[in-house]
């Protein structure tokens, strides 16, 4: 399996930087797990187990979880290589197909209109003025007590 993977990933058909990224993923994530595994013994269940375990503890530097983006790279590259194995008649079906991994959460940003931005900044400025006023009043109210306490300590 390891030889098939290293010879049949998409090296000739992609840019050099993509090829290097794929080589890194193969070397550090995929080959250590299935490099010695016979191609025909790979099942969807084995690959799902690998992906789950790898997501939780796949960071070799610290044993922590891998990012969703890294997991997508791993799964996509593995799928691409195993599709080549199907096309060459080495296996009947790609065991990666049908594995659904959760897509990263999409954040929907609301773009403010110019007048909304002005209103927001004005409110922030007013809030700052209010906060400053409350702090000044608090300090003013407490100043006599603070001065009395300081005088008592100095004379005490």
From TrEMBL:
<dbReference type="InterPro" id="IPR011010">
    <property type="entry name" value="DNA_brk_join_enz"/>
</dbReference>
<comment type="similarity">
    <text>Belongs to the 'phage' integrase family.</text>
</comment>
<dbReference type="InterPro" id="IPR004107">
    <property type="entry name" value="Integrase_SAM-like_N"/>
</dbReference>
<dbReference type="Pfam" id="PF14659">
    <property type="entry name" value="Phage_int_SAM_3"/>
</dbReference>
<dbReference type="InterPro" id="IPR010998">
    <property type="entry name" value="Integrase_recombinase_N"/>
</dbReference>
<keyword id="KW-0238">DNA-binding</keyword>
<protein>
    <submittedName>
        <fullName>Phage integrase SAM-like domain-containing protein</fullName>
    </submittedName>
</protein>
<feature type="domain" description="Integrase SAM-like N-terminal">
    <location>
        <begin position="7"/>
        <end position="52"/>
    </location>
</feature>
